Amino acid sequence: MGNSMGSKRGPEDREGAGYSMHPAEKLTLTDGCRHYEGKHEVPWDIQKYFAQRYSIFSWYDEGVYLTDDAWFGVIPEPVANQIAIDISAADERKTILIDSFAGAGGNTIAFALSERWQRVIAIERDASTLACAQHNAEIYGVHPSMITWIHGDSFEYLDALANRPGELHPDLRVDMDTTVLFSSPPWGGPGYRSDEVFDLHTMQPYNLEQLHKAYKSMDHVLFLPRTSNIRQVAKLAPAGCKIEVVQYCMQGASKAMAAYVPARKPISREGKPGEEPHVEDPMSADSDSSPSIEKSTAPTNGSGSSKS
Ligand code: MGP
Fold it and tell me: Which protein family is it in (predicted)?
């Protein structure tokens, strides 16, 4: 079981010394962490989100904190809960969930409260945002042992996990075969809404290619703009596998989509059956041969999910 968020381990501690990454200590809320109480306090560009605060965090009034930047990407609680339910359907050998962009903690909290996972590893690069997430998890009553927080870059963590696990603190070394990764990356702001079809090659600061490269050896879920180019997503499917794409809706309108992407198995020298002989560059031409997307439908009234 991982380090608790209430512990005070840090790089200066003997146990953490020598590792490139270690579980984060409990960070202190900073001036960048805010709990707005009235609209008059709220910067104009986040007033829309503040108006939706109770659908974003139903316990907002209990003292939920966010940074101003975190408001743009935080997922409404009913959607986070539905994603947690949908990810729970993963193969039962999967016991660890990595949340690679924890933000203010909305998804991490939903995963931790789902009781599906032995442990959730939640990564956040910004100290103030991480402090908010840790604080919010406490507000929601998440048991401290459920979440191992990492203050750092999720790409560096995944690279070390795959290639140099000895560099990581033992609590951060997980078996990638028994892990599912959830990624809700920044999309470069709300500008995606002006595109009829959002080009995932141009997503900032991380495009689909960068995300895919980092995640492909694990089962993973990409949380993406609702108008994302589905053909680009389809090209991520390993040979013989399908990707399920779910539109997450509230009041009948999609908020965003999630792509459930199976891991690519390593190529064996013998090219054994069931293993992939050739990995096509998923970012190659968008001309579409045979997109491997699962198609089905579900009601979209209220909050819920709709597969496309
Ligand atoms: P939105 O872009 O504000 O559209 O966010 P909304 O709420 O439909 O507004 P409208 O004016 O178009 O009606 C939609 C959802 O996308 C939010 O609830 C967030 O969950 C998610 N979201 C938005 N952004 C900009 C990001 C982002 O950068 N990253 C991630 N991961 N999610 C985001």
Answer: Belongs to the methyltransferase superfamily. Trimethylguanosine synthase family.
Q: What CATH code is carried by the domain that includes residue 109?
A: 3.40.50.150
Name the domain count of the chain. 1
Residue with CA at minimum distance from ligand 1 atom 32: 73
pLDDT tens-digit map of 52-103: 999 999 999 999 999 999 999 999 999 999 999 999 998 999 999 999 999 9
The atom number, within ligand 1, closest to the CA of 187 reads: 28
Task: Report CA(73)–ligand 1 centroid distance (Å).
Answer: 6
User: Is ligand 1 within 6 A of the CB of residue 16?
Assistant: no
Cα 96 from Cα 121, distance rounded (Å):
8
Q: Is residue 4 part of a domain?
A: no
Ligand 1 centre to CA of 212 (Å) is 21
- Whether 190 has a pLDDT exceeding 90, the answer reads no
In this model, does residue 216 exceed pLDDT 60? yes
pTM here?
Answer: 0.86
Q: Is residue 3 part of a domain?
A: no
pLDDT higher than 90, residue 185: yes
User: Ligand 1 centroid to 190 CA: how many Å?
Assistant: 6
Distance 156 CA to ligand 1 centre (A): 26
Structure tokens at 251: 């009041």
Cα 282 to Cα 88: distance, rounded to the nearest angstrom: 27
200 φ/ψ angles, rounded to the nearest 5 degrees: -70, -15
What amino acid is encoded at 249 in this protein? C
Residue 211 Cβ contacting ligand 1 at under 6 Å: no
What domain range includes position 158?
39-307
Q: 206: number of CA atoms within 13 Å, CB side?
A: 19
